[in-house]
Design brief:
The complex is a heterodimer of chains A (about 280) and B (about 375).
Chain A lengths: L5 H31 L2 H4 L19 H9 L2 H32 L5 H13 L2 H14 L6 H7 L1 H18 L2 H9 L4 H12 L1 H17 L2 H6 L8 H8 L1 E2 L2 E2 L1 H31 L5
Antiparallel strand pairs in A: 1-2
Helix pairs in contact in A: 1-14, 3-14, 4-7, 4-8, 4-11, 5-8, 8-11, 9-10, 11-14, 13-14
Chain B lengths: L3 E10 L2 E11 L4 E5 L6 H9 L6 E6 L2 E2 L10 E4 L11 H11 L4 H15 L14 H13 L5 E5 L7 H18 L2 E6 L2 H7 L2 E6 L2 E6 L1 H6 L4 H6 L6 E10 L2 E6 L2 E4 L2 H7 L6 E6 L4 E4 L8 E11 L4 E7 L2 E7 L10 E6 L5 E4 L7
Parallel strand pairs in B: 3-8, 3-9, 6-7, 7-8
Antiparallel strand pairs in B: 1-2, 1-4, 4-5, 9-10, 11-12, 11-14, 12-13, 14-20, 15-19, 16-17, 16-19, 17-18
Helix pairs in contact in B: 2-3, 2-4, 3-4
The chains are: A mainly alpha (about 280), B alpha+beta (about 375).
């Protein structure tokens, strides 16, 4: 806390903090206001005398009901949820095993392998989607959820592996050694000792992986073509922008509803998530 | 309970030869302490016995079994770690029960053993707590309890007391000794603290640079160190060392060094006669020096100037200047010594140690 006169606290703490929060939350506010703003206000020119960009006096749920009834939005949500959950589970499973192996087992080329996994994470998706598209076509997976479930781990596994590797390294080696002397095999020591302690790390890796797959755009855009297969991020932008007509109200309603699951997960696990990132293991 | 035999044990990490040809026979029910400065290979040796470190060459036997290839779980040992290594997500009870659960003991037997160990250690009231709710001393007890419930063949201790504060350490040291007397399990204990080594060990193994320097009962090591390293490592304050030349003068063997000229008594003189003309190291323990009146000068005394007076209560430590070198003397608390005072100090003729200057071995 800032010490001293009251004005110092205001100048150095409250005012910068408020400015920062406003800066961060403004896009969400804009999203919210736009999604409840009636069309006649939305398309009013900015020089009009009654132009009020930051609030509306006639809020409406019209865009939201239109979105839910007039488009495949619910279907998109279900698609995204399914794809994100399965991709996250696959990536977490592989990430836990790989992260554990790279942080604990001594084997030849362990360091090189770790770096190798990290480098694959650095290859931009905008390049990778071209060869991946080939593979997806050869396996006849195009326009199915599996196209995404199998390609998302290409960036999620390296991510989970690295996050968990750091977390596993922070767990004292003696805990596991003690368990192994106590009669546990390496597998049981991992299952009963390391995994429960690593729950915060595993949860934050899971949350991140889920968010990344939920928000993913380019693979979803390339690999899915029919409207009923699409994910939220692609569905909303491709179906609600028709030619040069932007259905701003529905677009923003879609964005708002689409970010609710992620926000919900974050707020639910926030404590674990912070502990996972700071890597704190209490002895 | 079982003896442990270590035969020509070696450990190499790439270029580093951490443990060099260690041979050790630990008898059944014996408490053996491995002591030495950090990096001397004591912990590595212990970890090889535990199976946490692979063995480069040599053999480890527990009972009659060569355990080189056995995983830690099959060696029937229990280990207490320096940082306790309590499982943070389990209660004290579950921490202690874990090893038994892994070995599929019946629930009633687990409960009986955990409660018995908790009773021995005085931790019955904390059984449902989590490790983070315990103090350092309590955690240490839980770590001990986790080892006790297993009724293993051998206890391995890796500096278990070094995370405790000084007072608690002394208290736990006594308790450890009592518990060992009560259970009689063979124990190997690693520490860098020579006081722990001397007080706990039935026998003490002094190591340096991966090599065993001397093995023996604590007082034997203290009174008859095999080399200069053991002499300097055991005892606090440490032994004083002075370089002296052995010369013959009028039929007497004399040790002549900077500020000292000592006529060696009969038996010592006979023993050292074959080193006449050589430079050797004289070792004197601080408690083997006493202040004598200036007139009482004889062949076993020398002049010194007091530089620092440390009053410890039970004794006084005098930091002395002898010639150009320095020495420490431990004298009775009643001695009135002042800084810059000139004193005459006499040596106990029975307790002089001599070491070869090159090999550093006792002569």
């Amino acid at each position: 806390m800032i010490e001293g006169a009251k004005w110092r606290r205001w100048v150095y703490f409250y005012i910068p903090l408020s400015a920062f929060i406003i800066w961060l939350l403004f896009p969400f506010y804009w999203m919210l206001v736009t999604s409840v703003r009636p069309d006649r206000e939305l398309y009013r020119p900015w020089m009009a005398p009654n132009y009020t960009p930051f609030w509306t006096l006639h809020p409406t749920l019209r865009h939201i009901t239109d979105l839910l009834t007039g488009t495949l939005f619910i279907r998109w949500m279900a698609n995204t949820l399914f794809i994100a959950c399965v991709a996250t589970l696959i990536s977490l499973f592989c990430g836990i095993l790989a992260g554990y192996a790279l942080s604990r087992l001594k084997f030849r080329f362990a360091g090189a392998l770790g770096t190798g996994i990290f480098i694959t994470y650095l290859v931009p998706q905008t390049l990778l989607f071209i060869p991946l598209a080939n593979i997806i076509r050869n396996f006849h997976l195009g326009d199915t959820p599996w196209a995404l479930i199998l390609t998302y781990p290409t960036f999620l596994i390296p991510f989970c592996t690295w996050l968990l590797m750091g977390y596993f390294k922070a767990i004292p080696r003696e805990l596991e050694e003690c368990a192994r002397i106590d009669g546990a095999t390496r597998w049981k020591a991992m299952l009963y000792i390391i995994m429960p302690i690593a729950v915060p790390g595993i949860l934050s890796a899971g949350i991140f992986a889920f968010t990344l797959s939920w928000n993913e755009y380019i693979y979803a855009l390339v690999f899915l073509s029919s409207a009923e297969q699409k994910t939220v991020s692609v569905g909303v932008t491709s179906e609600l922008v028709r030619g040069d007509v932007f259905y701003w109200g529905q677009l923003m309603a879609g964005a708002l509803l689409g970010s609710i699951p992620v926000a919900f997960i974050y707020s639910f696990f926030v404590e674990y998530y912070v502990a996972g990132l700071t890597g704190s293991v209490k002895g | 309970m079982a003896p442990v035999v270590i035969r020509n044990l070696n450990k190499k990490y790439n270029e580093v030869h951490a443990v060099k040809g260690v041979n050790l026979e630990i008898r059944d029910r014996e408490f053996v302490v491995l002591v030495g400065p950090s990096g001397c290979g004591k912990t590595t040796t212990l970890r090889m016995v535990a199976g946490l470190e692979s063995i480069t060459s040599g053999e480890v036997l527990i009972g009659d079994t060569v355990v080189n290839a056995l995983p830690p779980m099959d060696r029937d040992i229990a280990m207490v770690f320096q940082n306790y290594a309590l499982y943070p997500h389990m209660s004290v009870y579950d921490n202690m029960a874990f090893g038994l659960k892994m070995r599929r003991f019946a629930r009633a037997e687990i409960d009986r053993r955990v409660r018995h160990a908790a009773d021995i250690l005085g931790i019955e009231d904390y059984l449902s707590r989590k490790p983070r709710q315990l103090s350092g001393g309590q955690r240490q007890r839980v770590a001990l309890g986790r080892a006790i419930v297993r009724h293993p063949q051998v206890f391995l201790f890796d500096e278990p007391l070094s995370n405790l504060d000084a007072k608690l350490r002394v208290q736990m040291r006594v308790e450890l000794k009592k518990i060992h007397d009560r259970l009689g399990t063979t124990a190997i204990y690693v520490t860098h603290d020579q006081v722990e080594a001397m007080t706990l060990g039935d026998r003490v193994v002094v190591m340096k640079d991966g090599v065993v320097q001397q093995v023996g009962e604590p007082l034997d090591l203290y009174n008859a160190p095999a080399n200069r390293f053991v002499a300097g490592f055991l005892g606090s304050p440490a032994m004083n060392f002075v370089r002296v030349a052995l010369v013959e003068n009028g039929g007497m063997v004399q040790a002549v060094g900077d500020g000292v000229r000592l006529a060696l008594p009969g038996a010592t003189a006979v023993r050292l006669r074959r080193h006449l003309g050589e430079e050797v190291t004289l070792g004197v323990r601080p408690e083997d020096l006493r202040i004598v009146a200036a007139e009482a000068a004889n062949g076993l005394s020398f002049e010194a100037v007091v530089e620092v007076v440390e009053r410890l209560g039970s004794e006084i430590l005098l930091d002395l200047k002898v010639g150009a070198g320095s020495m420490v003397a431990a004298v009775e608390p009643t001695v009135q010594a002042k800084v810059r005072e000139h004193l005459r100090l006499a040596l106990n003729p029975e307790r002089l140690h001599f070491f070869d200057s090159r090999s550093e071995a006792a002569i």
